[in-house]
């Protein structure tokens, strides 16, 4: 009588005294994962282990992380642009007072990173 694994087309390999199933992970698209996706993956590994394992074993982890990375990147640039407009940080300021412009932009970028982390990466 065949096991359920064998009925589904699985095979076994003899390792010493035991037959072990020949298991492989599904092939996944090789999508690039940026810094946001890597941060989210670290978060999943540390705080959402079941979700991480389910995505990994189903072959959907890379596409999931690439999607999160894309969402976070879009949100980050949109936030920086909106915040700069609201604060009146313009190209004119950049040309006339570059040091002040850099300081203000760095502060905006840090604020945007915090928002993206809270709403996308660590959510």
TrEMBL record:
Domain of life: Bacteria
InterPro entries: TnpV
Protein name, entry field: TnpV protein
